[in-house]
Amino acid sequence: MSIRSPKQVLDAVVEAGRWAPSVHNTQPWTFAVAGEEISLRADADRKLSVGDAAGRALLISCGADLFTMRTVMRCEGYEPVVRILPDPDRPGLLATVEPGEQVKADEPTWVLGGEIERRRTHRAGFADVPVPEQLIESLVKAAMSEGAKLTPVRSPDAVSVLAALTQVAQGVQVQDQRFNLEVIRWARPPGSTRTDGVPAEGYPREAALTEPHFPQRHYSWRHGWGRAGDQNETVTGVVAVLTTRGDNREEWIAAGQALQHALLYASAHGVSAAFHTQALEIDLLREFVRLELCAGEYPQMIMRLGVTFDAKDVPRRPVSDVLE
Hints:
Keywords: Flavoprotein, FMN, Oxidoreductase. This is Nitroreductase. Residues 6-40 form the Nitroreductase domain. GO terms for molecular function: oxidoreductase activity. The chain is α+β, with helices and mostly antiparallel strands. The chain folds into 2 domains: 6-118, NADH Oxidase, CATH 3.40.109.10; 133-306, 3-Layer(aba) Sandwich (NADH Oxidase), CATH 3.40.109. It is built from 9 helices and 8 strands. The chain has helices at residues 6-17, 56-75, 107-114, 133-144, 156-173, 177-185, 249-268, 283-293, 319-322, and strands spanning 29-34, 37-42, 78-84, 93-102, 149-152, 238-244, 272-275, 298-306. The strands form 2 sheets. A 4-stranded antiparallel β-sheet has the order 1-2-4-3, covered by helices on one side. It has a 4-stranded antiparallel β-sheet with strand order 5-6-8-7, sandwiched between helices. A hairpin with a 2-residue loop joins β1 (29-34) and β2. α4 (133-144) packs antiparallel against α7. The longest helix is centred in the first third of the chain and has 20 residues, at 56-75.
């Protein structure tokens, strides 16, 4: 395969960057190209002012985007040269990426690149299909290579605690009208042509209960949208927590890169993720999780991993919307 020009590479990187996962599918990023350098910027207009006041989820989302960009650049035959938070006077500039020396992508990189548009977030229980232990170990290594720690929760008691904390957080949040309005801002009605947010077919009206139960977001709050739940998908799956040693902006971006590395690897082996960040959006509950369940490390994501046969399309903004 011939090496493409730097411009063709940059076009491919921006095109693929749109497919990274993000909180509520807000896609809170923009790109700018100057010469052979791409700037990844946070889109403050897409930040969740109620549920993500500190911008942690926004930066995790953009970190996932950054890993996507790096992966595509390697697949295109160039080693990415990355600078993270390169300008303290421009906090919205999260990273710059430019093609470095020419390289030949290895097979694992090609596998990850092939999953960028296929990976899907799941929002219900999983099928009764076990996740191989060897795969979990590989996901742990993938996250570690990006500077974060992915820990599968082995203790049934600890899983029950996380489920209970998720239920508590959800119960608190549904009493907050501002929070609910912010969530349903990103819930799309049936037939919507919007290219962001969570489409009605992307979440169940009433998800089948798992044991223990990890509640889903109330995207259907007061309007009854959503698809019929699959009553055959009731398995909790493997519960895992993604943590970092610190809790600053650079650590949040690292967590996003680790998350996307693990998600793409999992997708290549038929495993999807369901995210549960409710407890991490309430400071007291997040601190409890940190001290009691994460050995003092900072929890950045709580997720369930499992197998689903529910394939669905997800909207993505066109390049013209994200390229400045």
